[in-house]
Amino acid sequence: MKKMNKFIVGLAGAGLAFGLTACGDDSSSSSVAAPTVGDTELAGVVFDGGDYQVPEGELRWIDINGKISEKSLSFYQDSRVAINDNYVFVMEGLGTDNVSMVKPELIEEGAKTAVVWQVKFENSNPVDMAFDGEEAWVALQNADSLVKISTKDGKVVKSIKTGEFATGEEVSPYVTDVEFDDGTLYVLMQRYSSDENFVFTYPKGLVAIYDGSTGKLQDTIQLVTKNPTKLTLYKGNLYVASLGEYDGKADDNRGIEKVDLDAKKSSLVISGKKLGAGIYGFTAEDGIAFAALYKEWGSTPVVKIDLEKGSFEEVKGIADAQATLAYKDGALYVGDHTMGKEKIYVYKDGKLTGFEQPKGAQAPYSIALF
Amino acid sequence: MRTTSYSRTALMAVVLCFAAWGVPWAATQDLGVSEISGADYVPTRDANYTEIQSSAWEGKSLTAADLLSALPGIQAYKQGGLGSFQTVSIRGIAARNILICIDGVPLNDASGGAVNLGSIDLNQMEKVEVYKGNVPAKFGVSGIGGAVNFVTKNAVKKGGRVLAAYGNHNTWEGSFQVATPVTDSIMFASSFATRHSDNDYECTNRNGTQYNDEDDFTATRENAQYTDVSGNVQFRMLHGNGYFSTLAVTASRAESGNPGKEQNQTKVAKFVGESALIRYGLESVGYFDEKLFLYGALSARFDKNMSSSYYPLDHIGFGNNVFMDYGTATYKLVPELWMEFTPLNRLTGNTRIAYEWERAEARGNSKDWALDRKTFVGSGDLYYQLFKYAGLGGEGSTQVLKDRLHKGTFILPTGNRTLERAADRDATFAGRLYSKFGAATSPVTGEVSIGRFYQQPALMELYGTFPGAVSNPNLKREKATKFEATGMYKFPGNHTSFQATYFESHVEDGIYWLMSVELLRPENVARSLVRGVEMELNSSPTKFLDVVLRATLQKTKDRSHSNAYNGNKLPGEPDRSYYAEATLHLPFRFDFVWASDWRSVMYSDRANRTEQPAVATHRASLSYNPFENTRLTFSVNNITDEKYRNFYTPFPMPGREYKFTIIQGF
Question: Is the ipTM of this complex over 0.95?
Answer without folding.
Answer: no
